[in-house]
């Protein structure tokens, strides 16, 4: 089938056309408005989605070389995400489907982040292990099958992306700070050590990191007021090391416990160069086959929604016009 997919869960408006599981187009409009506020402002996000959704879909159809008449079903992110943002995508999808009498397919955004691995080859085989690290989630998942995903570990407080962004905020870096920390860390050495609690099992906790950074830097600033300014690359390297080593440590434990040898990363934080390098290194040592999607498919995108919807279409898992967005599942 030829599917139109819509993603609007946070601050990116994205539309894609997916035919028989193959991505024909994937168009994303970002929102610059949030940068000056140091984070996503929900009210601005939904307004920007309203402005962007029609032109984004038009470009997605055009780039795929199809028209509205070629679309056979409409897929959309039902949640989790910002309710006002989700509302725009869900309403658009419903209206498009109603106008053309098409079936609707609702998609779980987190399931889609995992299935982004099927946007282009090489595809992992089922079952595989996936570490999803995004702005709002940190999950270890056994992917038994496309639509059978078992969460075996998760964060009890902040997500990995949030840990990067909040740490960056403490250091005066612009939002989102993750990419900036990655860039600065490349020129630094992790001489400092930031303490992090271990909540046990396969779970994560990142909220203590901010406090540890704050106290460590306050102490340093007493001896040398210019410490942060003069040691930014080293501090970033230490922040990155703290987050990445925690993620990799739990991933290794999960791989040992499940016996899975196919190991995948998903979500925006999988763009992190240290995380990618550590995954490769562990993988070589442990005989894993590793999978990291191209950046376009790691951050929020509609292609992953369309690919997930294709798995649902073949099982005739459709939604009704009464479907409503859900901020949380
Ligand atoms: P969710 O899917 O949980 O609702 P999201 O979709 O908003 O969250 P993503 O777009 O997947 O999140 O990821 C955004 C996060 O990835 C931000 O926190 C950002 O700082 C982080 N990030 C992006 N690039 C890097 C990088 N190179 N190093 C570290 N973090 C990064
Ligand atoms: Fe996301």
Automatic annotation (TrEMBL):
Needed cofactors, names only, are: Fe(2+)
Q: Which domain of life is it from?
A: Bacteria
Q: Name one GO molecular function term.
A: tRNA N(6)-L-threonylcarbamoyladenine synthase activity
**Major place of residence:** cytoplasm
Q: Which residues bind substrate?
A: 132-136, 165, 178, 182, 272
For this protein, the record's CDD domains field holds:
ASKHA_NBD_TsaD_bac
The UniProt record gives the binding positions of Fe cation as: 109, 113, 300
The reaction(s) catalysed by this protein are:
L-threonylcarbamoyladenylate + adenosine(37) in tRNA = N(6)-L-threonylcarbamoyladenosine(37) in tRNA + AMP + H(+)
Compartments in which it is found? Cytoplasm
Keywords attached to this entry = Acyltransferase, Cytoplasm, Iron, Metal-binding, Transferase, tRNA processing
Give any Pfam family that matches: TsaD
InterPro entries on file? ATPase_NBD, Gcp-like_dom, KAE1/TsaD, TsaD
Function, please?
Answer: Required for the formation of a threonylcarbamoyl group on adenosine at position 37 (t(6)A37) in tRNAs that read codons beginning with adenine. Is involved in the transfer of the threonylcarbamoyl moiety of threonylcarbamoyl-AMP (TC-AMP) to the N6 group of A37, together with TsaE and TsaB. TsaD likely plays a direct catalytic role in this reaction.
NCBIfam families named in the record: gcp_kae1, T6A_TsaD_YgjD
Q: What is this protein called?
A: tRNA N6-adenosine threonylcarbamoyltransferase
* Originating organism: Neolewinella maritima
According to the entry, what is the taxonomic lineage of the organism?
A: Bacteria, Pseudomonadati, Bacteroidota, Saprospiria, Saprospirales
- Gene from which the chain derives: tsaD
